[in-house]
Specification:
Keywords: Cell cycle, Cell division, Cell membrane, Membrane, Transmembrane, Transmembrane helix. This protein is mainly α. Helix content is about 65%, strand content about 0%. The chain is built from 9 helices and no strands.
């Protein structure tokens, strides 16, 4: 039977806490060293004591980083020239990477460290050579634009590959070293660059579309206002060619409005006349009806030329026309209007 392999033991809590504390310490160290080197390089003064020269006034140091900062700046400028400013930038990149992966456990790898170190060497050498080939150092700094390393490598490359070939070679080495040291993915850089470009294009396109739409609406509104002004001028000009006639027409309009409002006010206050219905008079029976109330007992055959009696007719139905007060008031108001 095969013996079962023991399960791997979990990482102790104290080791996990140690990893996180080491990351925090590395972040603080990278940040402090970055600021110190940048301060030393920016406040470099050739009168300060340094590695490449001696100073008559060694007691007074102009560098903000002190005597140690003056020595560090002098060494970096002498060896690398302008490319000495890459060190604070690389430290800032490492500090950002530590902060970005702060929640991941820290694992040491010798091969990975060696690979990063090779990338740093290529980055520094290629950058110094490019600075020596394409820049000129100003007075007040030790060495050339690329320092001692840049001067040696740049002169050798120019003799073998000329300026164009040397530039192409050192750019390739510089990008390779930057990729290895900073773990930079150029495909990701292209994706981010494309996304930013598209976002900016959409932003400018939206702004241009909004501006064009507002401009078209403004033109349309101006055209409509001009058309209205022309119509008003066409209507007003024949009626009132001068100011006096315009004033008279305005006064007539005001008088008409006042009289109309007065008439409407009186109409609202007017109480409609109440029309009382006339008393109904009983219809008087005709003499013939009274005479024929007494029907004859014996009806002889109809004599030619005589009228038939009324009693043979059905009695008339009594119809009474009832009008509501509202209808009577409306009829009275209509009668008033007709009589005016």
């Amino acid at each position: 039977m095969k013996k079962s392999t023991p399960a791997p033991s979990a990482v102790p809590l104290w080791r996990q806490q140690l990893h996180y504390r080491l990351k925090e310490g590395a972040l603080i160290a990278f940040g402090a060293l970055c600021l110190y080197l940048m301060m030393a390089l920016l406040t470099y003064d050739q009168s300060d004591p340094g590695w490449s020269h001696t100073s008559s006034n060694a007691a007074q140091v102009q560098n903000a980083a002190g005597r140690a900062g003056a020595f560090c700046a002098d060494i970096l400028f002498m060896v690398l020239g302008y490319f000495a400013y890459i060190f604070p930038l690389l430290l800032a990149i490492k500090a950002w990477q530590v902060f970005r992966h702060r929640h991941e456990p820290w694992q040491w790898s010798g091969w990975l460290f060696s690979w990063r170190l090779i990338g740093l060497v290529f980055l520094i050498l290629a950058g110094a050579a490019l600075a020596h080939i394409h820049f000129h150092f100003s007075a007040g700094f030790p060495g050339s634009a690329g320092g001692v390393l840049g001067e040696v490598l740049g002169d050798l490359a120019k003799k073998a590959l000329n300026i164009q070939g040397s530039t192409l070679l050192f750019i390739a080495l510089f990008l390779f070293g930057l990729t290895v040291f900073t773990d930079l993915s150029w495909f990701k850089v292209m994706d981010i660059t494309g996304k930013i470009t598209l976002d900016l294009f959409e932003l400018f396109q939206g702004a241009a579309n909004r501006w064009w739409t507002a401009r078209a609406e403004r033109k349309q509104m101006v055209a409509q206002l001009r058309e209205v002004d022309m119509r008003v001028n066409d209507v007003v000009a024949p009626v009132a060619p001068d100011r006096r006639e315009q004033a008279k027409a305005r006064e007539r309009l005001i008088e008409r409005e006042v009289s109309l409002s007065k008439h409407m006010t009186e109409r609202e206050k007017h109480v409609p006349a109440v029309i009382a219905p006339a008393p109904a008079k009983p219809a008087e029976p005709s003499k013939r009806v009274q005479k024929e109330k007494q029907a004859p007992l014996f009806v002889d055959s109809a004599v030619e030329g005589t009228l038939p009696p009324i009693s043979i007719l059905d009695p008339a139905e009594k119809k009474q026309l009832n009008y509501s007060p509202e209808s009577l008031a409306a009829v009275g108001h209509l009668l008033e209007i007709k009589l005016k």
